[in-house]
Amino acid sequence: MPAATSPETILLIDDENQLRTITARLLELEGYAVLQAPDAYRGLALLAEHAADIILILCDVKLPDAHGVELLPRFKQKAPLAEVVLLTAYGTVPDSVRAMKAGAFDYLTKGDSDDQLVVVVNRAVAKARLQRRVAELEKQVGQRATFETIIGRAPALEAAKHLARQVAPTEATVLLEGPTGSGKELFAQAIHEASERRAKPFVAVNCSAFSKDLLESELFGYKKGAFTGAVADKKGLIEEASGGTLFLDEIGELELSLQAKLLRVLESQEFMKVGDTKPTRANVRVVAATNRSLKQEAEQGHFRPDLYYRLSVFVVPVPPLSARRADVTELTASFLRYFAGKLRRPVLVPTEAALQLLQAYPWPGNVRELRNVLERAAILTPAGQPLDAAGLPLDVQLAAAPGPSASLALEDERSLRNAEMHHIRRILLEANGNKAEAARVLGIAHTTLYRKIQEYGL
Question: Are residues 120 and 199 in the same domain?
Fold first, then answer.
């Protein structure tokens, strides 16, 4: 059964203690977490503290310190994506109309059946949940990449972009192959933006970020009552991507049982929600990504061969950063401009020595690692100063440190002299160039260290 996610939170504001306690218990039995407040003052305080978690506000109209309808604008200001249901002991048509015009989801009379309350609450929560999902998708839209925004001109990258541009206007399934951090999601977004589906959602999911059961409910959705905590029907990400593109990152992590369900989506554009007995139609284009050889995985029995062949209709190899070293300078400039805006500081300018280190480093974590290194540097480098070699992580400095001089290169790499030179260089880097500290760590006199530095050209 799918693992239950943390319960959605309802804020209940009512000055009648007994009724509030009974209503809270009823909602908790439906799987919700309930925060209780006896008046507007404490209700607004709870809302301010838990705004990100609260999905619904149930509020009495007549409170000791406020009128429920007049509180609606304040509720919406603090939690714009939450829905509000007003409760009253004596419902009237004018009050109901006023509440709905002010933005309430519904207006209920106290004493109505518990079933009616639960139905209204579930409908309000479903609407609020959808609004949150739409807001997330809209946020993703604002961050989408196009082929023009993918930085780099290295031949390997240009070849990948050329292939992706050719397949983008079609409805073909695309498989992006490349190491972690190489920019496969940027390619997926660019393919979506260059397709006829660009006006519809682009929904991304990392298959390695969920357990099997949770991924199934996230992808395919579920029916109310399908498992503990399923208090209402839920759309899955496939349904949310209707008309658009579903990007499945790290698809090699997908369990075999889910691979069969995904194969059905690709072949018939249909799927079964968890706990449902009827199929749901799915008009989606799938773009998948992997950091391993799916063909090898299929041959070894770890991945369904039929799904592999269905996914690999069109394969785009996304190159690692080590295959496009010429792009490091342009990427560095772009990232430093971005972090300057984010941190509200002047743009950090790397020295020539720092650039040489960045270009020489092999970047096993690819573009993502470069971005992380530059974000760290942008934070740690004092404003107004350039990014020098000492501002880069030690592993970048060590891995890209210059090799031995020409004369030393002729010597046996296993010689004591060569080992001493590399050891002194490492200690100097660890001490950030502080010769007094390096001499202390090495256990030698300052004069001896200076002599060794001169001798080895360090």
Answer: no
